[in-house]
Write a structure and sequence with these properties.
Elements (H helix, E strand, L loop, with lengths): L3 E6 L4 H16 L3 E6 L19 H10 L16 H12 L5 H10 L3 E5 H7 L10 E5 L1 H8 L4 E4 L1
Parallel strand pairs: 1-2, 1-5, 2-3, 3-4
Helix pairs in contact: 1-4
């Protein structure tokens, strides 16, 4: 039986996403089956880029406009400094040859990492599958995630 890693991505912050994808890609490259479960604000990582008035209610549309989806727009969890901190972090990552989050996501896809998205934040935000990037395999409930990740050798919550 293949070894398995399960990572819940709960945050849409650059530093946390970097850690999650570094671990996911390392696990997949070492032969593990990897499942990423995007929940709560982590859904913003797998939303298509840009600000959009998506959603089925005025509140959903405002929330989605203000959160600006997309992996290329993430802020830092600390010292964001109105966006200057995340800009500096992306610049430093590039300078020392660390991949961007979109590049890490592309590698994850190529390594066979599975992208599952929690249905609760999708419902709260009024999003649909077509609002998400192509790498997303499915929108699922927590019971499906638990079934898919059962027996994981590595479980993380980031």
């Amino acid at each position: 039986m293949a070894r398995k890693a399960s990572i819940v991505i709960f945050s849409d912050e650059l530093d946390r996403a970097c850690s999650a994808f570094t671990i996911a890609n390392g696990a997949a490259a070492s032969g593990m089956e990897v499942i990423l479960f995007f929940s709560c604000w982590g859904v913003n990582l797998v939303r298509k880029d840009g600000r959009a008035f998506q959603g089925n209610t005025p509140m959903n549309r405002l929330m989605n406009f203000l959160t600006a989806g997309g992996a290329a727009r993430l802020r830092l969890s600390r010292f964001n400094l109105l966006g200057m901190g995340s800009w500096m972090m992306r610049r430093r990552m590039k300078a020392v040859n660390i991949q961007s989050i979109p590049e890490m996501m592309a590698d994850a896809r190529d390594l066979g990492v599975r992208f599952l998205v929690c249905d609760n934040p999708i419902a709260i935000m009024g999003l649909r599958k077509q609002d998400l990037i192509d790498e997303v395999e499915d929108i699922v409930g927590v019971a499906t995630y638990i079934k898919e990740s059962a027996g994981a050798n590595l479980t993380l919550f980031i």
